[in-house]
Amino acid sequence: MPYYGAMYEAGNITPVEATDVLLVGANPLVKTVTDAMQGYTDGFLASLIVTDGQPEKNLVTAWLSDKVSGGFTVADTTAIQLLTNRQWQSDRHLLVPICGGSASNFRRLIELFGFYDFVGIDCVAVSAHCNFSVVKHVDRAVLRCIEQWLSSEGMPKHQTFGLADGYTGVEVHPYTDDSRRRFASFLSDDLQQRIHQEAIRKEAEYGK
């Protein structure tokens, strides 16, 4: 289930939410992590959303470990240091945690101290600090595989379940009146569809 396209789409809509972004990866040796990081970065830097008086976009990438099995857990002290040791240019900061279980630590600390807003990864995060999530619809992929297995054709040896077929995606869920107004102003149905189609195209190109 490639994540590049969905993460590209998430990066593309981010300027609605913040121009200062801390993108945190578990480690640079796991391809699924690096693909997701690259997708988000490409989408953020190529965003179709332009707002009046918007400051220059600022993306900082950080890795939690340099070991292939590292970064999927993190101590609170390390997480706090990573979140607070930044000089940002605007008042709205966004954390994008592509780091497995470590994301739960970051989320808990943000809920306690309100350092940042954050993007939900692999789940729809119900929080006033999280206004959109990147998700994998594993249930749909499992059902599709079962249907293929039971069919006369059987399952193909290789297949992907990505953004184009709805197996990955972005879910916008603004919970505050302020966020609802901002998303409604900048994310019209037409613009959302343009961003979505561009993300599908980029994922297809990236997979070649």
Secondary-structure topology with pairs:
Elements: H1 4-13, E1 20-25, H2 31-45, E2 58-63, H3 76-84, E3 93-98, H4 102-113, E4 117-118, E5 120-121, E6 132-136, H5 138-150, E7 168-172, H6 177-186, H7 189-206
Parallel strand pairs: 1-2, 1-3, 3-4, 5-6
Antiparallel strand pairs: 6-7
Helix pairs in contact: 1-2, 1-7
**Structural class label:** alpha/beta
The span between the termini is 15 Å
Task: Compute the average pLDDT.
Answer: 88
Major sheet description: 4 strands, parallel
Shape: globular
Helix content: 40-55%
Query: Which stretches are poorly predicted, pLDDT < 50 over at least 5 residues?
Result: none
Beta-strand content: 15-25%
What count of helical segments does DSSP give? 7
SSE pattern? HEHEHEHEEEHEHH
Which sequence of strands runs across the widest sheet?
2-1-3-4
Q: What is the C-alpha radius of gyration, as a whole number of Å? A: 17 Å
Number of strands: 7
What does this structure look like?
The protein has 208 residues and is of the alpha/beta class. It is built from seven helices and seven strands. Helix 1 (4-13) packs antiparallel against helix 7. It starts with a helix and ends with a helix.
Give a quick rundown of the structure.
By secondary structure, this protein is α/β, with parallel strands linked by helices. The chain is built from seven helices and seven strands, in the order αβαβαβαβββαβαα.
Question: What attributes does this structure have?
Answer:
7 strands, three-stranded mixed sheet, four-stranded parallel sheet, 208 residues, single chain
